[in-house]
Design a protein that fits this description.
Number of helices: 4
Strand content: over 45%
Distance between the termini: 29 Å
Helix content: 10-25%
Shape: globular
Oligomer: single chain
Number of domains: 1
Order of helices and strands: HHHEEEEEEEEEEHEEEE
Radius of gyration: 19 Å
Amino acid sequence: MVMPKWLTLSISFVFLFFMACDNNSDQVEINFDEQAQSAYEADGSAENLFDVIESITYSALQASEVNSGGRIMLKDNPELSCATIKFEGSKQSGRIEIDFGEGCEGPDGKERKGIIVIEYDGHWLAQGSEIFTVLKDFYIDGLKVEGTRILTNVSIGLLTIDYTVEIIDGKVTWPDGTYLTRQSEGTHTWIIGTTLQDFEIHVSGEAFGKTRLGVEYISEITEPLVFKSDCIKNMIYLPANGRKIISIPEKPVMTVDFGTGDCDAKFMVTIGERSKEVLL
């Protein structure tokens, strides 16, 4: 099962908020100071970049399912089509090296550069399996991304697939030398319908780190973010419901509320006592 490209796009709402928050002059304006904005941008940047890595990881694992002999066929795998792939092992344990060389464009238009190594112990769909994704001199659109991502299958049912997702020593460095840091723990639950194309993904967890300004931030999903395949088919990439908060010391908390289940391109932002509905 491949992590779809839309999940990467959905996390970009933080940046779109800054462009959209003045669309409706009848609603109260929400102002951000420099530290607050750096926290929201840090959270959005880090999630976006690590979601790209998640998508590549799922694509490689799915491709390894139908290949053997040390080669991975790249047909119908747009995340891997511009990379050189090496595969060692079996469906139960193995190592996949994905080399993007000096740079090539992925399906989302972002350039990948460098190497991603995936090592797994146990079949990735089986309870108890562990998947380690390690980045080696890896860049996305000129930003160096570092860290280790650990995925553990903790499923107990037949119609859901549960993974814990942990990012250790995450770091994103800009060309000017500034950087943000990221540590996170969360759970991704896939609820499968009648087909693999009919699903919901429930995302929960929290993250913390420092922004490019050195400001500490915490991001916490207080109500699971729910992504629905029916919404995606209608080009709605935001969660259908769920709530998230982002906070920094001595500043009002920002709450992002995605509603109660409708497939729409809007969410409510609250900072202190001020709220605003944002339509993308």
